[in-house]
Design a protein that fits this description.
mainly alpha; 4 helices; elongated
């Protein structure tokens, strides 16, 4: 009986990226995990910002601006959490098989979305 079948996941876990090739140096695996956790912290920060904006700052911006901004922050946070896992898995697989590591387009997208959200909120605060 394999460990995956013991936990009931069957063929889904562990994925191929974690079983092919040779295990990398533990320092690299742990560094990859720290990067994953940093992405998760960023995702949680976006959730906290959305909740704070909706719950504690209703007078900061009108509902027509605040609600879509909150929804965008929550959607980005959810997408970022999913991306973080996929990225962790991809990097781990690349290290195991000796493939090159690619840069992450998420950094540019995340920075642009946060800048846009900040600009929209600043304009809304100035207008009200």
């Amino acid at each position: 009986m394999t460990p995956a079948s013991v936990v009931g996941v069957g063929r889904l876990w562990p994925p191929r990226d974690l079983t092919e090739g040779e295990a990398p140096d533990a320092r690299f695996t742990l560094a990859n995990e720290r990067t994953f956790l940093a992405w998760i912290r960023t995702s949680l920060g976006l959730v906290a910002a959305a909740v704070g904006l909706e719950a504690f700052a209703p007078s900061v911006a009108p509902d027509a601006v605040r609600t879509p901004l909150v929804v965008v922050l929550l959607v980005v946070a959810a997408g970022l959490a999913g991306y973080a896992f996929r990225r962790w898995l991809s990097v781990e697989g690349a290290m195991r098989t000796g493939r090159d590591l690619r840069g992450s387009p998420a950094t540019i997208v995340l920075a642009a979305l946060i800048a846009l959200a900040g600009a929209v909120l600043a304009v809304a605060m100035l207008v009200t």
